[in-house]
Amino acid sequence: MAKQHAPGFLKLVADARSRVRECTLEDVRARLAAGDRFVLVDVREDREFAAGHAAGAVHLGKGVIERDIEARVPDPATPLVLYCGGGFRSALAADALQKMGYTNVVSMDGGWAAWVKAGLPTEQ
Prior knowledge:
Blueprint lengths: L6 H11 L3 E3 L1 H9 L5 E4 L3 H6 L1 E2 L3 E2 L5 H8 L7 E4 L4 H12 L5 E4 L2 H7 L4 E2 L1
Parallel strand pairs: 1-6, 2-4, 2-5, 5-6
Antiparallel strand pairs: 3-7
């Protein structure tokens, strides 16, 4: 059974999505196949990341990404693809990074669930 999100949370996500660019898993797969250079950022909680994450992803949880992004990715023009469990938290994080001046941020709709379902490489 899919998780039911609270209406207030969904409203917040919809607002963020009105300002951020989103992509699909297929878009990310095509970028990887083409050798496109970008930083894949997992914004899930520590325990979620430790249980498994996309191969090559860096971890900057949604709770700390605003605090830590400038140290990890100092150039605000760096291409970033953010993902979470399904695409909601990554949209919120992408919105925050854009407000901080990051200009090339994309949220991957479908997130970790889509990554795993597609059988793409994972790490622990």
